[in-house]
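Researcher: Please predict.
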Amino acid sequence: MPGALRVFHFLSYLAFRAGEGLIRLLPLEWAFDLGRAGGELAYRVLRHRRAVALNNLRLAFGAEMSEPQLRALNRQHFQLLGANLLSGIKASTLPYDQIWQRVTAKIPDERLKTGWIALISHIGNWELYSHLGEKFPDYRYGAVYQPLANPYIDQHIREARKRSGIKLFDRRTELLSCVRFLREGGVVGVLVDQRAGYAGVWTPLFRRLTSSSTLAATFSIRSGLPVVPLAINTCGRARWKLTISDPVYPEGYDAELLTAEINRLLEQQIRREPADWLWAHKRWKPLRPHFLFARDQRRAFFPPNFDQATLDRFRILVISPESADEARKTFAAVSAIQQGRPDTLLSVLAPTAALDVWKANSMIDSIIDLGNEDSVGGLASKIRNCARFDAAIFFASSWKTALAVWRAGIPVRVGRRFGATSLLCNQHPIEPAQPLDSERMNLHIAHSVGANVNALT
């Protein structure tokens, strides 16, 4: 580790320990109240995170709640997040009997006689999971752990978990040891609400495809042991409720089907107390640069009872070239993009001269008329009113279209590093070593975002 980075990590560790020490001096109720106030401050100051959480809430509940309701829920989410973060730190210093006096427990009548996989998530005061061994001493507890970037804070947290009786398993190197621990009667906690990157299976959560880890499902199938959903919800000032749901056994499941079932169970937990979940995490953020699946043959899985007509689509806006002839030269690339993932919804922003060409193209779901009379602001409003786009792909660009797409708030904007308008794009294909004609260049752009241009049908 470079010396400057080591110093930065150590200073960060000292600041973390100082803050932790101050919180430990407070009564638990004060820590909860202070955290709630800090969450309110974060809601007002952290505009980007506030917007991320609100977009996620719209995705999950936009059809069920009004915009004022969603904004109020977002604010409450930040308040509870701060309250639970600080009270979780404080709770780690209390005797276990004082902790569990503040936690009511709803558990199945019959205890499992074997090991099991605990499905845990960032709901409520998730730090209290590390104290389960004190409440239920008839099990040995472990957790799959992702090491932190700061080695000093990482070591501190590892030691704290060890004092609580939690055995940690590094997800990079100790998964076989984790399976043995389960077979010997242990309980292993696995986080199931985080993005799994390129390695995950893409399956719905709140009707939207998202990369989901198959780790918990794989553990269950290989060990023959059940998965058990857990949640620790906030039910008052420094008060929580632990819910241990009925076990789900792996018989009849493969890893993909059980992962989809885990997502369904997670959604049920979130719906019970939606303000308690970590909405400010970019759970549905598209992977970059390959937000399409076809090039690297990423898996998408829909459970048998899922109605794909209800799927929240991945919306892509194609920016057309000016002329009809140049627009036709994008068709092969657009076809590859359309086949790039099973939830694609394609729209095109087209000038008047190319409108008829695009209207005859069956791959396009909707067309936005660029219109010479529209101002940049008017065009941006027109784009926003058409759909909540996830990505825009420029096959041609002007200041007007580039500014309008940027102002419309489309998070991923793909364009060549060519001309000043490229500054308004945030993803650029690698420029080819040799010049390409228009059609091949368009295919190159589609390939850069994950389309399989060699398998066009």
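Model: The first helix runs from residue 3 to 24.
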